[in-house]
Amino acid sequence: MERAAVFMAEIAPQARLVLEYLLRNPGRRIHCTELVDKALGGPNEADPARRVAGVLSGMSKGHGNSGRRLPFYWWAAPEGGVGATYAVRPSVAGVFLAARLGE
Q: What is the DSSP letter of 57?
């Protein structure tokens, strides 16, 4: 839990918004367009996948300084599809939510 707290404290603000949205929806695969609309407040640009990927790069400092892996999984769009999906395991969400409450 301590590493999760360090991770959360050191990520960029928009990356935190996306992570918190994923944490509130554990176990559910969420498309990048939903993350842009719901977590980042829209508007959904021409390439929401690129926007989310750019935002998630704001987790690099937290990832490096906490010594823990990224708390989410991602899946590329199927061939011919558009945009990636992301998810957090329920057990990981529990650790991060508990760490957040301890802030």
A: G
46-59 burial: b if 16+ Cβ within 10 Å, else e: eebbebbeebbebb
Q: What is the per-residue pLDDT for 17?
A: 94
What pLDDT, on a 0 to 100 scale, did the predictor assign at position 62? 74
d(Cα 93, Cα 53) in Å, to the nearest integer?
Answer: 20
pLDDT, averaged per 10 consecutive residues of the chain (103 residues), comes to 86 93 96 94 81 89 78 89 92 90 64
Could you tell me the residue ranges of all domains in the chain? 2-101
Cα 97 to Cα 23: distance, rounded to the nearest angstrom: 7
2-101 adopts what CATH topology?
A: Arc Repressor Mutant, subunit A (1.10.10)
The pair of structure tokens assigned to 57 is: 């790069």
| N-terminal to C-terminal alpha carbon distance within the chain | 11
